[in-house]
Amino acid sequence: MMSSGRNSNEKLVSWLFETNAVRVCPKDEPFWYTSGTIGPYYINTHFLYGSEEKANSLLKIIDEVKDDKIGCPQKILELVTENYNNTAVYKALIDELCAFLLEKFDMNEVDCISGGERRDWFFSLITAKMLKKPHLTIYKDLSAVISDENGTRFIDNLNGMKVLHIADLITEASSYERAWIPAIKNLNGEMKWSVSIVDRNQGGAQLLERNGVKPHSMIYVDYNLFDTALIMGLIDLDQHDMLLRYIDNPKESMRQFLIDHPEFLENSLAADERTSQRAKLCIEKDVYQLR
Known about the structure:
12 helices
């Protein structure tokens, strides 16, 4: 995990659970995901902003201001800076992220820090400010603006700038492939490195490497994460067992769970609308080949 040692790793695990950025289901009550699959944990890295409420409030403001592409970065930077000064867990995380970057990179080689719409901005803007680097704010339509000591402006040529991208979470890195890497390339820049707060170990790092981007992450969703959570008393043995079986084989472990607990699907179909819709989708797609 974090090369700066066990202590840093334990702090990050603690913050993930403290803010509900990681939620683990109770024994025998896996979560329903939008895809009609089930699993034992949720990850919402942006909750490290302090809480779900704080994070959702910032997302709402981003949605209100992001059409003003020049004004948006400064507005968000003001809000995250205020939060940094007033929210201990977010301040500690950003300080840890800056220390991680200074340890991993010669920052003289980094010309610019980038972040993509929307959740990357929770972390990338303030980090660029603290490390005194220009910030490239990338929008989903592949447009981008750059912010530095001269203010914020549209840019049509990065003149070969080497860019470090900061992301909240990396799964399969589809947004990198679809938007962030092409946006930088279109501007004659090069994304050389990526740093995510959390890597879900779902192939994203490998995709980045294939695209010439060197991936780093502060923490990985693996045995280590949940072993540490168990040692720290943040989860119990039953949860730990379910998590490890899921990491080993997500589909087969949840298929076996449904075979062992036939009432779970029945209860889900009779539950609230969102749950029942996801359970119906699971059955219609025969996700777990139970027929």
